[in-house]
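Q: Convert this sequence to structure tokens.
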Amino acid sequence: MNLGSVLTLGQTALELGLISSLTVLALFLSYSMLNVCDLSTDGCFTLGATVGAVVALAGHPWLSIPAAMLAGMLSGFVTALLQTKMGIDSLLSGIIVNTGLYSINIAVMGNSSLLNMNKTETVFTKMKAALAGSFLAGQYKMLVALIAVALVILFLSLFLRTRLGLAIRATGNNPDMVRSSSINPAFTTIVGLVIANAFTALSGCLLAQSQKSVNIDIGTGMVTVALASLLIGNAFLGKGKIPVRAVGAVLGAFLFRLVYTVALRFNMPAFMLKLVSAVIVIIAIAGPYLKSQLPLFRRRLAHRRGKGDVEC
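A:
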């Protein structure tokens, strides 16, 4: 593998990592801050992709971004409503919404499972035209994704320091204390999931326009990918202030996509990538626990060796 191939792999992983990191940042808000595991992520990601694609196909590429985010906000609102007002478990409410979104996404796509955007103006082609002739012309995809990620990180850094943002963080830490402080945890949960799903939908919208196509399975496994990326990021930059932890989430997304890209480069069958995702999640989750258990394992091993020497 020559230097050119390595740089190409790195650029591809960075572009995809930046786009998918928006979903990771959504989980950073819902899972890390609000302590809610939102399993509607896959369907919401696809919803953002389909809505964004349909609006772009209608000739409004810039409008596709707020349209996709609004659709994601509606998805998050329904998910939050099920668990806060209807007494449905958070995991189950996510599964229910994810199931329902499959039919909605098909309907948005005009009863089709695939949309082709090869001849469609997108935010990426607009950026490419704006940068024509400049030294950044070849990096237009990365620039669009970088701007989106920077704006989301800036928003989270500022929002989570406001009274509402602090209330959302407190809800995730101790909902009983929040309730005793005259703060409605149902309201903070709804706001948190609405914002998080807006980011997930934005991620889907940008991925669809980047690859200029949408299929109904575009969001399959995104919750696994995002969770793995979040945990990887926490391993590197899991402590510190919100901006640092958010950057860690982006770093985790890049590293995860880099593993994916390298696996594809070495001709790993596409059906094996889901297994790779599962293994990475297991390592990311079990790694810290196994590391903490290592001293105990060493003491037990030393004790057994000592006992064996005495018997001899």
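The beta strands are 114-116, 213-215.
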